[in-house]
Amino acid sequence: MPELPEVETVRIGLLPAMEGQVIARTEVNRPDLRWPFPENMGERLSKVRVQALRRRSKYILADLSSGETLIVHLGMSGRILISGNPLGQFHHDHPAPDRHDHVVFNMENGSRITFNDPRRFGAMDLAPTDQINAHKMLKTLGPEPLGNSFDERYLADALKTRKTPIKSALLDQKLVAGLGNIYVCEALWRAGIRPTRRADRISKGRVAGLVPHIREVLRDAIAAGGSSLRDYRQADGELGYFQHTFAVYDREGAACQTPECTGKIRRIVQSGRSSFFCALCQR
DNA sequence: ATGGGGGCCTGCCGGC
DNA sequence: TGCCGGCAGGCCCCCA
């Protein structure tokens, strides 16, 4: 699930239940996810106010009144569920407990926020807010793709020495932070660039075109997530479960959607991960 | 320094 | 119906 747009959708969905609200008590149901939780995480996440809920790349950051920031990564299968009815907008009851409900935030306002992650590739950590950018998981991240510093000059510069396929380069979080397999495939299709093309062999003009395509595919996905969240019909209140219509991702064999193109979407494997593209309009 | 592959986990789906 | 292999939206780590 979680690339940048999904994480942003989850953040926005969490805002009314969390931002400015007090966590009364946090239940921690196991010692770790991908890494051990920090010492006394449950206590450090109890009786604190969430002053701001931010996002950096695929990480959700909750600035707490204690001076610490909670860092949350959803990994591959992490989900966040909101239940209870504190503000009149979360109309569902608490869902049945699940064996993968690893951390549960009981809010003073009566809502319950459950972190569920079957595969446990997710992560949580606490660090001083004023040193958050120096955190191990954050300090090597490249620019935000929707931010001002991610522009044509930056990307052209970053790609010109990379001999790796453009697909791998864009998945490198040091180069640009927040893209994953889906949105790299989608952006490359929009830009007409084949995922196997060596990063240093893409013309300047096509690299320049790639920047707005990356931004637009992310913006479109965030907009789609936001709209499906607003009506909040899912019985369990799960955030981030919305259907996108992808042009290429997971559409092997489907007709290419480029006007006039007669190509079919192909699937190949690059560094162990699926890439989807149209061989006719992506070169 | 850069690039590629393995590994971490569980769940689901299709084929036999 | 059951079993098995393959696959999954991420990312760290090790090796060449």
Provide key terms for this protein.
283 residues; alpha+beta; N-terminal domain of MutM-like DNA repair proteins; Helicase, Ruva Protein, domain 3; 2 domains; two-stranded antiparallel sheet; elongated; DNA-binding
Characterization of this structure:
With 283 residues, the chain is α+β, with helices and mostly antiparallel strands. It has 2 domains: 4-134, N-terminal domain of MutM-like DNA repair proteins; 152-278, Orthogonal Bundle (Helicase, Ruva Protein, domain 3). Helix content is 25%, strand content 22%. The chain has 6 helices and 10 strands. Strand 3 and strand 4 (68-73) form a beta hairpin. Helix 1 (4-18) runs parallel beside helix 6 (204-231) and helix 5 crosses helix 6. The chain is elongated, with a radius of gyration of 20 Å. Mean pLDDT is 90; it is low at 229-237. The protein binds a DNA duplex (16 and 16 nucleotides) through helix 5.
